[in-house]
Amino acid sequence: MKIVYKNREIEIDVRSMNSFGRFIGLMFRSRETVNLLFDFLSEGKRDLHSLFVFFPFLVLWLDGKNNLIDHKICLPFKWKISTEKPFVKVVELPFNNKNKKIIDFFVGKERFK
């Protein structure tokens, strides 16, 4: 999928999750897993969590046209991950070598550790 950020586009491979997949997300997976896309079909605010996620990951909140609304680096075992802005889609990108350039694009090289 193409994501627009600061008038630039970046292509990210994602796996679209069904309703059960949205519940599980990155829980119990390894950091080498695929990037996940959650499409909620309508705009709103929803909280995420990183319980039983054993590695850091980047969350991208998107509007219906795949424009980046907000992003945040998430650490393992956090009860609440949220943004104040309404969104339609969420992409979760595990911190791994495959995603290094993508994460650098959004947050810079100094944050990828």
Helices and strands, with pairings:
Layout: E1 2-5, E2 8-11, E3 15-16, H1 19-24, E4 36-44, E5 57-62, E6 68-74, E7 87-94, H2 100-107
Parallel strand pairs: 3-4
Antiparallel strand pairs: 1-2, 4-7, 5-6, 5-7
Summarize the structure.
The protein has helices spanning about 20-25, 100-105; strands at about 1-5, 10, 15, 35-45, 55-60, 70-75, 85-95.
Q: Can you give a write-up of this model?
A:
By secondary structure, this protein is mainly beta. The protein has a single domain (2-111), classed as Protein of unknown function DUF192 (Jelly Rolls, Sandwich), CATH 2.60.120. It is built from 2 helices and 7 strands. It has a 5-stranded mixed β-sheet with strand order 3-4-7-5-6, covered by helices on one side. The longest helix has 8 residues, at 100-107. The two termini are 25 Å apart. The model has no long low-confidence stretch (mean pLDDT 89).
Any descriptors?
113 residues, mainly beta, Jelly Rolls, five-stranded mixed β-sheet, two-stranded antiparallel ribbon, 2 helices, 12% helix, globular
For this structure, what is the CATH homologous superfamily?
Protein of unknown function DUF192
The arrangement of helices and strands along the chain is: EEEHEEEEH
Major sheet summary line? 5 strands, mixed
Structural class: mainly beta
Number of helices: 2
CATH fold type: Jelly Rolls
What's the β-strand tally?
7
Helix content class = 10-25%
General form: globular
CATH class: Mainly Beta
Q: How far from one another are the termini? A: 25 Å
Proportion of beta-strand residues: 35-45%
> Order of strands in the sheet with the most strands?
3-4-7-5-6
Reported CATH architecture: Sandwich
> In total, how many domains does the architecture comprise?
1
Rg calculated over all Cα atoms = 13 Å
Low-confidence stretches: none
Mean pLDDT: 89
